[in-house]
Amino acid sequence: ALRRAGEGLPPSDLAARAWRVAVAARHGRRRVVVAWAAATAVVGVLVAGALGQGGRDRAPPPAPSTPPTTARQAGTLRDGTAYALMPLEGTEGGLSTFPAGLPPEVDVAAPAQRLSDLTRAADPVALLYLRRVGDDRFEPVVVTSTGRQVLVDRLVLSGLHDAEGRVVAPLGPRALGGGRYAVFPQPGRVVWLDTRTGLTKDFPLPATDVVSVGWTADQGALVARSGSRSWTLDPWAPGGKATRADGSYAGLVRLDADERDPGRHVVVSLHERDGRPGTGGVLPAPVTAVTGETVGTEQRAAAGAVFDQDVTHPVVGFGDGPVYQGLVAVDVGSWTSQVLLAPESPDGQTGRLTPCCSVLGWADADTVLFETRGVHGQWVLAWDVERGTVYRVTRLAGVAPDGGRAPVAVALNVGWRH
User: Fold this and answer.
1) Of 368, 417, 410, which Cα lies nearest the Cα of 106?
2) pTM of the model
3) What pLDDT digit, counting tens, does each position of 131-181 carry?
4) For 239-250, how does the pLDDT look when each residue is reduced to its tens digit (9 = 90+)?
5) Staple 112 to which of 41, 149, 183, 193, CB 3.0 to 4.6 Å?
6) Closest of 272, 361, 249, 292 to residue 13, by C-alpha
7) Minimal CA–CA distance to 127: which of 290, 371, 392?
8) Do residues 286 and 81 make contact, with C-beta atoms less than 8 angstroms apart?
């Protein structure tokens, strides 16, 4: 099974306390910051309405005039957690580039070749995204390292629904395995796709509320999860029957907020390479919530995070907005944690969406690849955890969240995605 999973694998597999109520109620909504008194005093934040469907053709607002910096901006928070700062939203284009084996730009609104029209197999995939078809349907598009786009035109996927009933794309960061095989969660089943040939298979699941599916670290099996249950299945075995395996996780590490002491620790759960639960513990970190999937290597892991504003606000520069979201990373070897803080724009009107950031993979042992979403567009960026530096990797052109279009769901086929 492992040999088959490795077929087509590229030669180098590069890969607050008043705030809490407001943050929890605003999941997926844009904020409006009412006032910012000084660099170390947050006056308040109000939450504005959900992203609307109108104004799709409205151009995004001008990017912040604050010049971007690629210099290291890092230090230690008062609780002892190491931190680094992201640039303001809208200035990502001024960052230095990081070579991760991905094209510098992917225009998700551009025409794509149809897989069914190709006379030979498509080149190895570097990135996969889902193109929306109507309100709740999606088609996969594979992108090569040179930027060539191929639409898998004979597969249409149903959207899933989050806790608030909104349609979300059925794609996770571990969707791609073996260099070519993609998996998608669907109500009552998992869909398996050979991205080179377009061949698909369905694997039944005894649940209609499945929310994620991904390849395990050994690439030999899949772990599918609903809100409270999980299953493993071997897509190479005849029948590919799903087996109940609660507690299983496709990655080697899973990060969660500490519900007993929110804002002070992050819970670290370790797993075996086949997804089975292992051991774990807690690490100091000003995390009140973890968003999205945890993705890592053999030693490090990272996830999107919401932070305790009481701890993070002293690092904000004069004129900048607050810091309440970003990424959290852990090193299970040295048992330490680091955070990447995402300051808000000074005007309190434009800026990042919520959640702003999700982890896609690791380009190397120290550099996490993640996507960031804001009113000026969507990017894949790289964070060097050791040096505290943020780089640009890929711009997703054709994405206009401020005009009512939802961010594009992306999965990578470079780097580690354990």
Assistant:
1) 410
2) 0.83
3) 998 888 999 999 999 999 999 999 999 999 887 788 899 999 999 998 899
4) 889 999 999 999
5) 149
6) 361
7) 371
8) yes
